[in-house]
Write a structure and sequence with these properties.
There is one protein chain. With 1023 residues, this protein is an alpha/beta fold. Helix content is 46%, strand content 13%. β22, α30 and β23 form a beta-alpha-beta unit. α34 packs across α35. The chain is globular and about 85 Å long. The chain binds flavin-adenine dinucleotide and iron/sulfur cluster (SF4) (2 copies).
């Protein structure tokens, strides 16, 4: 699994730039898998390995240059879209260069008159559909991997999808494709050349960079759900629809086993303590269920005839709500993997007339639960996708896998074929593609790629894997009884027990992850960086590697777990409804709290401030209440059932938020109580940084204070605070076996009704066009979407617009963990969010989360977008007649110090700062060390020897030295930071030693490599 040679790496970096090339083992592994999970006994024979490098070309010129380089140096290359295929087409041979085309996602042109669209290779169906939808167009067809697969991937892989009943396979709908040939020549393919040499070719003839395809006009759709008691009735109904030439657009179906097993699925994301969200689940009959879709305009031509077909075949039409539900589930074909956690997959194409016989034979021969989804294509072909739930952790999985071949054998006996070739079914190439196409492809491949560098081993070829597949096929009748008897273990295992150091439930989810990639493009952590390791799919893959003992938790891997923004988009995207974000939170607890592997250093500074003053902004507790204007002080009591919880940022930095919230709440008639100086940070920074012991201390403090003051309802300004009170404190109380009685509200949930029923009235308009940013912790985490919008819409004459992504789909601001963990990525993410506001023509972005506002303000400045970032409560209070100055300037001033601390805490920067106190460090070395060092200077090679010894010596000496030089270090830090706010300056002599103390064990190993050469230089030159 070696990386490419350094000279190839150097050339790749020259072509694509450093940020678009990866050769580290972790990333290369992440790009060496697809959705297929081969059984452990077969895996060693799969002719694939670990990529030698991964490149993400920015444009076609870079693809051309990479192809030429590969040709010149004999390097094998593998085109890759979003890796949602499962036939091994994207699996690299050991050392090959993976060319990841997923960054090329633009829709290049839309011809609304001729109904064609041109898109870049990596464009995802869902995004293309959204974009062309704005022009009144819709896709003719799409695969059920619509949320994550690419246009070029489908052309190269081939296949049917929704809409195939009317429009056939994708290649029949492609006008042309632009391809970089293995020689580096760029060629536009169309017509038969395109179908014969590019389509279904799995990238062996070149890298597709653009695809132009036909689309249709968008119109409302009818979705009908019909139950048939057996495969025979379903088959004859489908034949009648086809024979009657009913102009239906799409027909798909499920077998009874699918419905039966679906009832076992957990309904939510599955976290034991998760709040219940509304969830409709129809009770479906355990029958063959067909979903039939067609445009509304064809009702007249279809409805009556279809009714006749349904009744003639004993079908029962189910209610419209169930039909819509099943339609919405069409992108979740793998959802049953959640109960596996693995599946044995199988996929075939059979003639429609033979479909009932094939299903009958499968029923006879496969004696394990068999989930089946069917997709009827043009020309009376049916694609059957089968899954047998199983458990790859058991030996039986190896045996049960043979059943996938049984299904292919049954299909072939009835005039069908395997679905695709890829790497595993090369021996089926002729039956899948046809002899003529295979011969033509072979000829062309030899002509344009004689050295065989382009995706070698795919479509054609032979090796041990083909022998194994062939033998298994030949002995299928003998193997089948054994495979049928190889049942998965009867339970999921004990999810509360660690598996090789991974919490049991996380381990299970890591196996269950189908690698479908739905969570990848929308993941905030991924989109700011673009590398698979940063995505939920990549993180589960890494956890599997750790469990297998092939990887360990080094600093980079730990930071990758920490840096997730907790936006929860992944939870909403996952077709298996895995509790993804909750899993990363659990990993933080495991790695940081339990195993003490060290969090991001700035969190230690916040922790020190929190322990002393109960806030994270290094403000003194006695100043926590400074936000309260004199005139409302009498209205805010020490005790009472409705307690306002201002939180740190609104108390110390964005005080307009606390003031405006309190004014609106009191004006609406709420009598507020308040903890005053006793209020402590809600603790979310400690929770997300893995410092759970401190989080628990805070929980005890805040809940005790709240009870002491008779609080029953907690009202917060910050959505993270309300999430903590509503969910995280409640969970902790449950774990500690304590009562938890608090009701929790975000203030918008009280103010919106007050505006609606006239308790509050807004009179003053707001200038300019306004949009609203959904905070993840209010929206996805708590379902608070409408109250803030209702508040804004109550402002007279407001010019309100939504951004492209809003409510559940709203983009994360990219805040806290990115700001603290990888500061340079934060404005990239904030920029993505704010660009949508610019595109919507907004001048003001209103947000309700104090932390989002800090991040959006910072990103607004760094991206020079010229927007105004304002707070919801402040804007509404202004419309109610209050003049509360907004706090952009002050918040940026305060953030500036954090910014500097975060940068300073990077080991290289800290080492640089420490050069200023080298003389003091030298003087405070343990007895005898200084003379020894000076003596070594005189010995040839002595200092080089010292340099090698430092990593072992320094951790032993550091605590003593640093304690002694701390006053000098504080001076150096103060010089670097500049004039600090009064409280911060006063607290720093206390905060810094505490921070360094907590940091030492995990920070020193990061610091020493930077510090040592500088220290040796100092000894050599300055002593
Ligand atoms: C949940 C789920 C549902 C699915 N539903 C369907 C379905 O309904 N119908 C269907 O046919 N398939 C389906 N698939 C399989 C898969 O999604 C499709 O084959 C999809 O088109 C692959 O697209 P991709 O971008 O992920 O390509 P990848 O998986 O990355 O690549 C697939 C093949 O194409 C090649 N390739 C990729 N990009 C290029 C390029 N730019 N130039 C040249 N070659 C390239 C690769 O080398 C590989 O051989 C499904 C998969 C999942 C996980
Ligand atoms: S919570 Fe957000 S950033 Fe974290 S993994 Fe999920 S989508 Fe990515
Ligand atoms: S985490 Fe869910 S959405 Fe992401 S790849 Fe796995 S199964 Fe798919």
């Amino acid at each position: 699994m070696a990386a490419v040679s350094s000279s190839v790496e150097h050339s790749l970096r020259e072509i694509c730039g450093d940020e678009r090339v990866r050769t580290d083992r972790r990333e290369r592994k992440m790009y060496s898998v697809d959705i297929g999970a081969m059984p452990s006994l077969v895996k060693p024979f799969v002719p694939a390995g670990v990529a030698g490098a991964v490149v993400r070309p920015r444009d076609e010129a870079q693809v051309v240059a990479v192809a030429k380089l590969a040709q010149d140096r004999g390097v094998e290359i593998v085109p890759r879209g979003w890796a949602t295929s499962g036939y091994g087409g994207v699996l690299p041979k050991d050392g090959a260069v993976v060319v990841d085309m997923s960054d090329r996602q633009r829709v290049l042109s839309i011809d609304a008159e001729n109904l064609t669209v041109r898109a870049e290779a990596g464009a995802i169906w869902e995004n293309v559909d959204r974009e062309i939808g704005m022009r009144g167009l819709a896709l003719r067809m799409y695969p059920s991997s619509y949320p994550s697969s690419s246009v070029a991937g489908w052309l190269a892989q081939g296949g049917s999808g929704f809409g195939s009943y009317e429009y056939g396979t994708f290649k029949d709908n492609v006008v042309s494709a632009r391809v970089v040939l293995p020689t580096g020549v760029v060629k536009e393919f169309s017509g038969s050349e395109l179908r014969d040499l590019v389509a279904d070719a799995e990238g062996i003839t070149g890298i597709i960079t653009e695809v132009e395809f036909r689309v249709r006009r968008r119109e409302p759709e009818v979705h009908r759900l019909v139950a048939f008691s057996d495969a025979g009735s379903l088959g004859s109904a489908l034949s009648a629809i086809s024979g009657g030439a009913l102009p239906v657009w799409s027909i798909t179906f499920l077998n009874p086993e699918s419905t039966r097993l679906k009832k076992k699925l957990p309904h939510h994301h599955g976290h034991p303590y998760e709040m219940e969200h509304e969830h409709f689940e129809p009770s479906l009959p355990e029958a063959f269920l067909a979903v039939i879709a067609y445009p509304e305009s064809r009702r007249e031509a279809i409805d009556a005839e279809l009714d006749k077909v349904i009744s003639a075949n004993g079908g029962t039409e189910l209610d419209a709500e169930s039909a819509e539900h099943e339609w919405e589930q069409r992108f979740a074909p793998m959802r049953l993997k959640r109960i596996g956690p693995s599946i044995v997959p199988t996929e075939v194409v059979v003639p429609l007339a033979q479909m009932p016989a094939v299903l009958g034979e499968i029923d006879d021969k496969i004696k394990q639960p068999f989930i089946l989804e069917g997709m009827v294509g043009k020309g009376d072909n049916v694609v059957l996708l089968g899954f047998i739930p199983h458990d790859e952790r058991s030996f039986a999985f190896n045996l049960a896998f043979a059943l996938s071949l049984s299904v292919i054998k049954i299909a072939k006996a009835h005039g069908g074929a395997a679905y695709s070739t890829g790497l595993y079914f090369r021996r089926e190439a002729t039956s899948v593609l046809g002899a003529e196409k295979v011969a033509g492809l072979l000829r062309y491949k030899t002509e344009v790629d004689p050295a065989g560098i382009m995706n070698p081993g795919k479509v054609f070829g032979s090796g041990l894997i083909d022998v194994i597949m062939g033998t298994a096929n030949a002995f299928e009748p003998l193997v089948r009884p054994i495979a049928n008897a190889a049942k998965p273990p009867s339970s999921m295992g004990d999810l509360s027990k660690d598996v090789n150091g991974i919490p049991g439930d996380v381990a299970f989810m890591a196996y269950a992850c189908a690698r479908c990639g739905y969570c990848v493009p929308t993941c905030e952590q991924f989109s700011g960086r673009g590398w698979e390791s940063q995505s939920p799919r990549g993180k589960y893959a890494y956890i599997r590697e750790v469990m297998a003992g092939r990887e360990t938790w080094d600093r980079k891997a730990i930071d990758t777990m920490l840096v997730c923004t907790t936006c929860e988009v992944c939870n909403t995207r996952c077709q298996l409804q895995l509790p993804i974000e909750h899993n990363w939170m659990e990993m933080r607890g495991k790695l940081i709290n339990e195993e003490k592997r060290g969090t991001f250093p700035p969190f230690e500074m916040m922790a020190a401030s929190l322990r002393g003053e109960r806030d994270i902004w290094a403000g003194k507790a006695e100043h926590r209440t400074d936000w309260i204007p004199e005139d409302i002080k009498p209205l805010i009591k020490d005790e009472g059932p409705i307690m306002y919880f201002a939180g740190c940022t609104a108390s110390f930095v964005e005080k307009d938020i606390a003031e405006a919230t309190a004014r609106l709440l009191t004006d609406a008639g709420y009598e507020l109580s308040y903890m005053g100086e006793e209020e402590g940070c809600c603790g979310i920074p400690m929770k997300v940084s893995g410092k759970w012991d401190l989080f628990e201390e805070i929980y005890v403090h805040n809940t005790t204070e709240a009870r002491k003051r008779g609080a029953k309802t907690i009202v917060t300004s910050c959505p993270a605070c309300s999430l903590v009170w509503k969910e995280l404190y409640a969970n902790l109380a449950r774990e500690r076996g304590e009562e938890y009685e608090f009701e929790v509200k975000h203030y918008s949930e009280l103010i919106a009704p007050a505006l609606a029923d006239g308790r509050l009235e807004l009179k003053k308009p707001i200038e300019g066009r306004v949009t609203f940013h959904d905070s993840c912790h209010a929206g996805r985490a708590q379902g608070i979407y409408e109250p803030p919008r209702d508040m804004l819409k109550a402002i007279p004459g407001i010019d309100y617009v939504e951004m492209e992504h809003s409510r559940e789909e709203g983009l994360c601001c990219g805040s806290v963990l990115t700001l603290v963990g990888e500061i340079e990525v934060a404005p990239v993410l904030g920029g993505h969010r704010l660009q949508e506001a610019v595109d919507a023509g907004a001048e003001t972005v209103v947000a309700l989360c104090p932390c989002c506002q800090v991040q959006l303000r910072d990103s607004n400045i760094k991206n020079e977008l010229g927007l105004k970032i304002d707070d919801l409560s402040r804007v509404v209070a202004e419309a109610a007649g209050y003049d509360i100055p907004e706090t952009t300037e002050y918040s940026m001033y305060m953030w500036g110090f954090f910014d500097k601390f975060i940068i300073l805490m990077e080991p290289a920067n800290m080492a640089q700062l420490m050069t200023k106190i080298f003389p003091q460090m030298m003087d405070n070395m343990p007895a005898g060390m200084k003379p020894m060092m000076l003596a070594m200077k005189a010995v040839p090679g002595g200092l080089s020897m010292m340099e090698k010894m430092m990593p072992a010596m320094f951790p032993m000496m550091a605590p003593g030295i640093l304690n002694k030089v701390m006053p000098d270090m504080i001076v150096a830090v103060e010089e670097y930071i500049g004039e600090m706010p009064e409280d911060m300056a006063a607290l720093m002599p206390d905060l810094l030693p505490k921070t360094m103390d907590s940091l030492m064990p995990t920070y020193l190993p990061q610091l020493i490599p930077h510090l040592t050469p500088k220290f040796i230089d100092y000894v050599r030159n300055d002593t």
